[in-house]
Design brief:
With 176 residues, this protein is an alpha+beta fold. The chain has four helices and nine strands, in the order αβββββαβββαβα.
Length: 176
């Protein structure tokens, strides 16, 4: 029988705790927390699911004790930021640094400061943190390579609740 990985469980608990802490600051009923295991017991997704269909989901994929990716969007459009390089961290970055970036990105998505630009050959996902700070990534799907889109499109997501933008600006880093 396989022994449980305590480090992975600790990481999973810290990430879930951060998401729960963020959820607790939101008005009741505007979002929910979801923890979704995959077929592989080492892989798990933790995400905030907004009540509004016009707001983006935000989540993290964990592989054991490490961050695999951070993602946001609404079906059918999602973009994944591969960790650590696409979220601006070095390979040696610690768990606290990952949690800090995830917290900032999550607050940006909650505030509706995120968008997808569906371009000819890729989808660009952007999360704005402040006027000077943001995260963006391009996802290239195989279908886009063989069948490029002719009409460019932008999807601007709405905040989880009215006033979310001002709450996100006043929030400092949440501690776990």
């Amino acid at each position: 029988m396989k022994q449980p990985n305590r480090v992975a469980d600790s990481t999973r608990n810290l990430v879930t705790g951060l998401f729960q802490q963020i959820l607790d600051t939101l008005p009741t009923g505007c979002a929910s927390l979801s923890v979704e295991p995959s077929k592989d017991p080492e892989i798990i997704s933790v995400l905030l699911v907004p009540s509004s269909e016009r707001s983006a989901k935000f989540g993290v994929v964990l592989m054991g004790e490490r961050f695999d990716s951070v993602f946001f969007g609404r079906s059918p459009t999602y973009t994944h930021f591969e960790c650590p390089w696409e979220i601006g961290l070095s390979r040696s970055a610690g768990l606290d640094q990952h949690l800090d970036v995830v917290s900032k990105m999550c607050l940006g998505v909650i505030a509706g400061k995120c968008e997808h630009r569906i371009e000819r050959r890729w989808t660009r996902g952007v999360i704005h943190i402040s006027e000077k700070e943001g995260y963006q990534v391009r996802d290239v799907g195989i279908l886009r390579l063989i069948w490029p889109r002719r009409n460019l499109q932008a999807v601007q997501y709405e905040p989880y609740f009215p006033g979310a933008e001002s709450q996100a600006q006043s929030s400092s880093r949440l501690s776990v």
